[in-house]
Amino acid sequence: MTRTDLSHIDTWLFDLDNTLYPEESGFMSSVESRMTDFVVKVTGLEREEAFRLQKKYLAEHGLTLGGLMRHHGVAAEDFHAQFHDLSLDVLAHDAELISALARLPGQRLIFTNADGYHAERVMEHLGLTSLFDKVFHVHSFGFAPKPDPLGFERMIEIHGMDPSRTAFFEDSERNLKPAHDLGMTTVLVGRQAATSTADFVHHRTDRLTPFLARALLREPV
User: Would you give the end-to-end CA distance of the chain in angstroms?
Assistant: First the structure.
């Protein structure tokens, strides 16, 4: 395995779900199933049709929630609440990941399309809370979910980030494009990484932990 040179990076930006834990855990499948249940409840559609609408809103608005808010008057709080009691038992505490994150110099941030409660709950369960300086969730700077460039721009401005010294880790390829366009180093994470050919993806890895553990980092000041 080659060692990726990230010695120019001093801000480490991570997506949360399916990035800081593996997609294979199946946790997001449970989230998606509850989401479909919610769409059925709101629209009265059969489950198969509701699932298609769910994916349509995701493609058009960046989040299923965006479409539900715009077209069905759904309150964001009601939508997010359905996930707050999901069991986290499938998410394993990963000591090697914790060690790999702890060696990263500079600030470490989360950028998630979930709400703050979900992010805090998952991070606490994984033992990651103390490793991150800030969580930017979907409502942090107004409703501007990834891949909306506005969310990235607001985050950079408010936190004083230098995109040229920032690495962004994501499991969703399309969410990396605005980061690339702003000058960030982009890393696609997960089993789909090997087949990605997007020119806005700089690095690809199926497993986050060994990638971080082997990366070349800047020397401590």
Answer: 28
Cα separation of 176 and 3, whole Å?
Answer: 21
CB 5 within 8 A of CB 102: no
Tell me the CATH number of domain 11-21+92-214, given options 3.40.50.1000, 3.40.50.10490, 3.30.9.10, 3.90.400.10. Answer: 3.40.50.1000
**Residue 29's CB: how many other CB atoms inside 10 A?**
11
Please check the confidence at residue 116 and state whether its pLDDT lies above 90.
Answer: yes
* Distance from C-alpha of 94 to C-alpha of 31, rounded to nearest angstrom: 21
For the chain, give the number of residues.
221
Q: Give the pLDDT confidence of 166-175 residue by residue, as tens digits.
A: 999 999 999 9
